[in-house]
Amino acid sequence: MAGLKDQYAIVGIGETEYSRDSGRTTRAMGVEAVRSAMRDAGLGPDEVDGMLSYHGNDSTASPTIATDLGIRLNFYMDCSGGGSSTEALIGIACGVIEAGMCKTVAIFRSMNGYTEARIGGTGRQAPAFRSGALQQGIYGMSSAAQSFAPSFMRHMYEYGTTSEQLAHVKVAHSKHASNNPKAFYKERVSVQDVLASRWIVKPLHLLDCCVETDNSTAIIVTSVERARDMAQSPAYIMGVAGRTSKPSVGYHWRSGPISRVAGHYARPIVFGTAGIGVDDIDVTGSYDAFSFTTMLQLEAYGFCAEGEGGDYVSSGIIELGGDRPNNTSGGHLCEAYTHGMNLVIENVRQLRGKIDDYCPNWQDGEHTYDYSEGGCRQVRDAEITMNLGWAMPATGSALIMRR
Fold first, then answer.
1. Label partner for 24 (CA 20 to 30 A): which of 60, 129, 139, 320?
2. How would you label 261-283 residue by residue, b for 16+ Cβ within 10 Å and e otherwise?
3. Which CATH number describes the domain made up of 2-117+213-227?
4. Which residues face 104 on adjacent strands?
């Protein structure tokens, strides 16, 4: 990947409404999101010849979406694997274009994550983890929250991390969402609101957990040469680390500290290929299935020292107006749950300088940088962004982009 730095770019982004009652199939939503991304890039059906997707639960496969859009594919692949998929698929897109298998790749995720395949079991389809997909299910850890909880609890035990510190992640993301017209939850919350919400799985309160939504999202990757002719300013891909794992995946605590996540191993790969360090990053998009996943990843990638994640996220640094804002759309905790796609889309918009907020002239890139409620969420002079993907403590991915 080091030789591919700045050779590929994200040139188009698209999304449907983030809702809890889409009333639509994932096929219809997938077509809308990919079409929107194509229009954003200024591409026609004959100019896209590759397609990738995170395919799971009620999703629709790439060939079906491509057929509906009039696209003939030279390369396609639908994979499963959780929230580390997005960044990994971007890396695969760069690779298959480099190998000459296709020229331009659309990547999408389409899911009725609230009305259909809901982990909690109240959707129309069976919950995603009831089948025992998580190996720890034999011990009663059959949901994501249950499976991840030992890593969270161990961090609290080892380093004194508190629920109050973690609540600041939700507080920050809710502030960002209040300036996002698309966000499902726009209401700002306080630390006390988080702590007063009911327990789900200790140490997670209800407001520590992501919002479940119906939606589809899409991005388009192509070479820098082709990107120069697109409708939007490209977001250049500096480095990717995808589907990196701990030595043991199914029972990850057997190898290394329980509270150590896979970002520890992805860190030298992504920063090495990008040729930069943490101090060069202006904006992060750290996967927030739970408030703790954000913190553990920021720590693993070196934004703070091991054990200092609680202090980092509660310091104000991750808020708009702070030194390194995180999940400026509100992320999975507040905007929508998309297995990481919306976090990449947000960072592409940050690099374009055209965040869709409540600034009256945001389409022209004019922003007030007033981060009070119902205001702006554009980061001033955002040059380099980083996305930190997460599937579980043992697997992760990362992406660094520049303007």
1. 129
2. bbbbbbbebbbebbebeeeebbb
3. 3.40.47.10
4. 222
Beta carbons within 8 Å of 363's beta carbon, 6+ residues apart:
354
pLDDT over threshold 70, residue 105: yes
Q: Is 265 a catalytic residue?
A: no
Q: CA 228, CA 81: separation in Å to the nearest integer? A: 33
CA distance 4 to 49: 20
Determine whether 337 is an active site residue.
yes
Count the helices and strands in the chain (H runs, E runs).
Answer: 12, 11
Domain extents in the chain:
2-117+213-227
d(CA 389, CA 2): 20
- pLDDT tens column, 21-67: 999 999 999 999 999 999 999 999 999 999 999 988 789 999 999 99
Determine which one of 287, 301, 312, 371 is catalytic.
Answer: 287
pLDDT, tens digit, 9 for 90 and up, residues 280-336: 999 999 999 999 999 999 999 999 999 999 999 999 999 999 999 999 999 999 999
Residue 13 bridge partners (DSSP): 219
Q: What local confidence, expressed as pLDDT, does residue 120 receive?
A: 56
What is the model's pLDDT at position 130? 45
Average pLDDT, the chain: 93
Would you say 347 and 243 are in contact if contact means Cβ atoms under 8 Å apart?
no
From CA 120, how far away is CA 210, in angstroms rounded? 12
pLDDT over 50 at 401, yes or no: yes
Q: What is the dihedral of CA 161, 167, 170, 171, to 10 degrees?
A: -130
